[in-house]
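Quick check before the chapter quiz. The format below is the same one you will see on the exam, so make sure you can read both the input and the output lines.
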Amino acid sequence: MNIGLVLSGGGMRGAAHIGVIKALEEHGVSPTHIAGSSAGTIVGALYAYGHSWEAIIAFFKNVQFMSLMKFALNKPGFIDAEKFYTDFNGYLKDDDFSFLKKKLFITATNILNGKPKIFDKGELIKPVLASAAFPGLFAPVKIKSSYYIDGGVLNNFPVNALKNKCDVIIGVYVDGFDALTIKDLKHSHHVVERAFKLKSVKEDLAKFSDCDLVIYPTELNKFATFDKKNIDEIFEIGYKATNKIFATEDFKRLEISLKQ
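Here is the expected output.
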C-alpha cells in the first residue's frame, strides 16, 4: 500500500512535523510517499533520506537559518539560501533524489514565470533550499536556467503531488493563524508574513478534503514563523496532536486500511 504524507510550510512550526513522524513510527505507520513545501520540504527530505526523528530535530536546532554569515551579496535578498548547501550536504550526503528511501515531491515557485514547480528527480539539495527560500528574506535559488523561491507562495500544502499516487493520504498542516491586534505587528517582516499567510491558509484549508486524515494542531498558531526558541514545545505539540488523532474513531477506521 502506498501511504502519502503531505507536510505544509510554516517556518519553525515545521518542527511539529517531526513530532508527527515520531508518533507515526510508534504506531507502525510508514509513509511511502512524501510531498512537502518550505519547512515541510526540509523535514520531508531528511526523513525520505533515512534520518531518524532525533536527527531531524537536531538539524533544526543546529542550523542557524537566520545567520548573517550567509548574507546575500549582489542578490535580491538578505540571506543567500545557496550558502546553506554545506549544512544540508552534511545530512544529505548523496545529492540526488535517486538515493532517497521514500518517494519525495518538493514544491517551489518559479519567480521568473510565476509558475509552481514540483521537483522529484535529479539534484536534491537545491530544490530543498529553493522550497524554503522565504520571499524577501532569502534570495532566489538558481536551478539550471531559472530561479526559485518558497514553494508556499503558490502551493503551501501540496496534496496534489500525491493524488493518484497513494491509497491513503495523511496531511499535516502547521501554518494556521489567529486574529491579531495592531500591536502584534511590530516589524515590517511581521506584516509581510501576515499578508503572505492570509492568502495561503484559505487556499490550503480547501485541500483538507483531499486527505484521508488531517493533523492540524491549532495551538501552533501562537508561534511566529522564525520562532526558533520554542522548537521543543512545537515538536511536542505535533507529537501529542498526532496521538490524539490516533485515538479517534476516524483513525481507527483508517488504521484498518493502513494494515491491509
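If your answer matched, good. The chain is about 35% helix and 15% strand.
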